[in-house]
Structure formats: structure tokens, C-alpha cells
Amino acid sequence: QVQLVESxxxxxxxxxxxxxxxxxxxxxxxxxxxxxxxxxxxxxxxLVASITTADGISMYANSVEGRFTISRDNAANTVxxxxxSLTPEDTAVYYCCLGGSYxxxxxxxxxxx
Length: 113
Hints:
7-stranded mixed beta sheet; 4-stranded antiparallel beta sheet
């Protein structure tokens, strides 16, 4: 069955960086568009970034454009989210998503001094 397991979250100071990973299994990863979402307290779950299959075309939410980078390693069945210049507004649970139907358990990112 499809499994998505996120890791890499934590507590970081404003201006810091984190790299999230999502290890995928149970489907043909190289054929799947992968997405990262985040859910902050009191807000709706928002799409942060997505990356297509072999050509690796990426898109980003306006709020993270220029600070976050999504990438994938098809050999390792893993998608990454490099987050730089973090602000408290980036605090949320970050989720890896396949096709809008399959979700990981999420990883907490807290940006605070």
C-alpha cells in the first residue's frame, strides 16, 4: 500500500533552514507528481510546492517562492523540501502528498526565537 513518511522537522530560529524528506513506497514514485502541503493552527491546509515526474518541473506558493526548493530523487523514492530564510509564519505541520488522496503523518516545523 502507499506509504509516505516525512522527517526533518524541528525547532529553528528565524532566518534558519531545514530540509524535509518524504520517503515513499507502494507506488511507482518516478511516475508521480509529488506535493508538499502545510497546515498551521487556525488556518486551512495550503499547498506549498509540487514537482512533476521525470522533468522535475516545480511550482511554489507565493509565500515561499525564492525561499523553498522542492526536489526529488527517483532512485531513492524520496521528495525533499529545502526551506531557507524561515520565518515564524512558516510554522506548521508539513505533509507530503500523492495525488490528493494519500498523505503522510506530517512533520512539525516550528520557527521561533
